[in-house]
Each structure stands twice: as C-alpha cells, then as structure tokens.
Amino acid sequence: MKKVTLYTQPECPPCEVVKMYLKEHNVEYKEINIKEDEQARDYLVKELKSYSTPTIIVDSEVISGFNLEALTSALNK
Fold it and tell me: For a tag site, which of 7, 17, 18, 38 has the least CB within 10 Å?
C-alpha cells in the first residue's frame, strides 16, 4: 500500500473533494492541517515548494493543487 499524506486547510473545497476521492477508493491517508500546524506549513513551502492546498504526497511524489488525474496516476487506480 502506498503512503499518502494530504496537506489541507479549512474552507478549502478542493481539499474536501480530494478527501472524498480517497475515501471512495479506500485509500488510507494522513491529513495535516497547515493552519493548525505551523511546522507543516513551513515544510510545505520550504521543502516541498508547494504554495497551495491540497498538496498530496504519494510515497515520494508531490502533487500540488487539485489534480485528480495526477493523483489517480500516482495511486495506480
């Protein structure tokens, strides 16, 4: 099983769609709210070079922004 981490923030409709997609496809994931976790927000920007949510990491592949096609490909669905 692939390791999936989802960086989100409140009131982010695309984040909610990604969560629904992952649940529909029975994909376990860890959700990190960047509004509540300042270190995670810094990591997102400085290390992952991502400036938007949702940002999804599938194993070591980073998908910045809302891109279900890339997510499906990364998950091999």
Answer: 38
